[in-house]
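Intended use. Records like the one below are meant for learning the mapping from a protein sequence to its folded structure. Do not use them to infer anything beyond what is encoded.
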Amino acid sequence: MEHPDNVNTAGAPASHPSRYAPTHGYLWDPWFVWNDTRLHLFYLLQPMLAGYDRVHVAPRDRPVIAHAVWSAASGWEECPIALDYTETRYDAERIHTGSIIRRGNEWHMYYSGSGRSVCLATSNDVLHWQKSRENPILTPDPQRYGPRWRDPWLYRDPLDHKYTMLLAAQSLNASANTSGVVGVARSADLLYWEQEDPLDIPPWFEWLEVPELHRIDGVWYLLFVTRERWISAAGRAHFQATGITVEDGVFYLRAQNWRGPYREVDRLFPPHSGRYTTRLVTTPGGEKWLWSHLELDGAGRPQFELAAPLACTVAPDGRLLGRPFPDSSGSAE
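Structure written out for the chain above:
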């Protein structure tokens, strides 16, 4: 699905990016936005402290939102930290995953704050960010959603032009490992949000992390990641009946309507790929890139860096495929 509010178009890049690993910490949960021919990467960064190295699992207790930029001319460049902690209650304890959308000349970053809330920061240049005085912008409606509420992702509806926010959320009346839903909130101005019923998905998960939605060839693809321990008994039975490996990883559900019902599910990558949070990013030239952070290397050791993008295509049967670009290295997914 095209996201005109996320892209300031100026033509397709002449080459494809390489992998990226920050020099001073561990990377996970990336999100992206184009500005002309420059691709801006935002991600959760656990700064590397004394005694930590890449052969041990990265601590994830207090990440900041970090920033890097890629261009075909210059490759990767690290930027100053985008968002750090403040003493305000809404993000003094925790900053977590977000996404960015553009309205006019202003960029809006929505991110997960403390207390299961959605917070906002804005920028005129994608480099310097100012947190909103109205934070938190959104907290879950207790009549509609449980208290766990994070990972906002936004797009602008091509039909009514409203901004739609999807969230990793939980239903009110379900057992723990069947309560995962994708929450929905909508807005005309990116400030005032009306919460709506979650997307129609089966009760197969405790969490659908970092959800995002794309319309490709008339079909809606709901991408998300989940852990093996978050897949319910009903989900496991369905996966086994359809030949899907029950394992941590990247999944997607398909539907003809963006609200669902979503019943067709598949893995995006083969088992043991080491890939977790994955984003589908459309370039200004129309290419579709799949970006993933790697949790494990080929030997099963913790890695926590950004893999080089894969080309996203759709198979004749509607499955999403990720393949290396001709100018990159790596095996086909």
